[in-house]
Amino acid sequence: MTKLKEYKMFIDGSWVESESKKTFETLNPENNEPWAKVPEASAKDIDLAVKAAQKAFDGEWSKLFPKERAKYLKAIADQLRENAEHLGKIETIDTGKLYKETKTQANYIAEYYDYYAGLADKVEGTVLPIDKANMQVITTRVPIGVVAAIIPWNSQMLLTAVKLAPALAMGNTIVIKSSELAPATLFELGKLIEKTGIPKGVVNIVSGFGEPCGKALTSHNLVERVAFTGGPETARHIIRNSADNLSQVSLELGGKSPVVVFEDADQENALNGITAGIFGASGQSCIAGSRLYIQNNIYENFLEKIINRANKIKLGPPMDSDTQMGPLNSLKQLELIEKNIKLTLNQGGKLKCGGKRHNLSNKGYYFPPTVIECENHNLPTAENELFGPVLSVMKFKDEKHAIELMNDNNFGLAAGIFTENNGIAMRVSKSVRAGIVFINTYRLISPVAPFGGFKNSGFGRESGLEVIKDYSNIKTTWINTSTKTISDPFIVR
Question: Which of 185, 189, 187, 190 is nearest to 92 (CA)?
Answer without folding.
Answer: 185
